[in-house]
Amino acid sequence: MVQSVIIRPVFSSAIFKHVSFFTKLCCNHHLSSDVSKRSHSTCNLTHKCYNYKTNVTRSDVRLHRRLLCQTIDSHPNFYFPPTATRQTREEILANFSVDLDFVTPEEENELLKETDRHLQRLRYQFDHWDDAIEGYRETEVSRWSRGSSAALERLRARAFGREARGVLVHTHVLDLAPQGYIKPHVDSVRFCGSTIAGLSLHSDAVMRLTKQELPHQTVDVFLPARSLYIMKDAARYLYAHEVLKEATFRGRVVEKRRRVSVISRNTPGPKDA
C-alpha cells in the first residue's frame, strides 16, 4: 500500500483527487533513509507502481512524488493511513507533537542512571491494576539531581509554558521491558489533566492513537530515543493511545529494547472532574 500521505489544509480539491487515486494503486514505497531522520528527499523514494497499465501520466507521477515527499518532510514522525480523515489529521497535528533529540546523550545517560536507582528493587510486572500495561516497572520521583532537573525544567517549559503552573510535583517513571507493551487506553482524568509530556529513553517505539468513537481512525507516531512527545486536549481525551508490542513504521521494523519513559502531567481541571 502507498505510504503515509499527510495532506495540508491549503491543498486544493484537485490535489486531493490525485492523492485519492494513487492511494488506490498497489504501490510499494521504500524509504532508504532511516525513519528517525528529519526529512526524506525525492531521490530516496523508489516507486514501483508506475509500470502497471494505468492511465497515469508523467505529470501525475511527478505530482504524486512531490506531494508524498513534501508531506513526509512536513511530519516525518506521523503515519496517517489512507483511511484517515482530514479531521483526524487536524486533531492530531494540532494536539500531538514530537521534538527530536530533546535531551542529549549525556542527559539521557544521567536520567537513566537516576531512574535505575529508583527502579532497581522493583520487578517487572505483567498484571497492571487496570490491565493497561504488560511487562513494566513504575515509580514516582519528586527529587532529581541537578543535571536531570535542568532537563526536566526544559520539558515542563516546553509542554506547560515557562511558569509551568499546575504541573504535578511527582514525575512518573515507566520502565517497559523489551517484550513489554502498553495496551490502548485513555489516562484517567482523576490523575492528570489536559496535557501529558513524555521523554522516551534508551529505545525507539511506535505509539498508536485510535479514536474512541471511530476505531478505524488510527495514527502511528514514531518516538525515537531521546525525543519528547506532548499529547494534549483532543489527542489526549478523544484518542486511546498504546505502545505497540511489535512495531513497524513506514514499512520498517522498529527494534525494541528496554524503554524508560519520564512523564510529566498537569493537574486535573474543572472539566476533568
Automatic annotation (TrEMBL):
Q: Does the keyword Metal-binding belong to this entry?
A: no
What molecular function does GO assign, one term?
A: dioxygenase activity
**According to the lineage, what is the superkingdom?**
Eukaryota
What cofactor does this chain's UniProt record say it requires?
Fe(2+)
InterPro entries associated with the record: AlkB-like_sf (IPR037151), ALKBH7-like (IPR032870)
Show the coiled coil region(s): none
Q: Which UniProt keywords apply?
A: Dioxygenase, Oxidoreductase
For whether the record's keyword set contains Metal-binding, the answer is no
Recorded GO CC terms: mitochondrial matrix
What processes in GO biological process is this protein linked to?
A: DNA damage response; fatty acid metabolic process
Q: What is this protein called?
A: Alpha-ketoglutarate-dependent dioxygenase alkB homolog 7, mitochondrial
- Encoding gene (name): LOC108673800
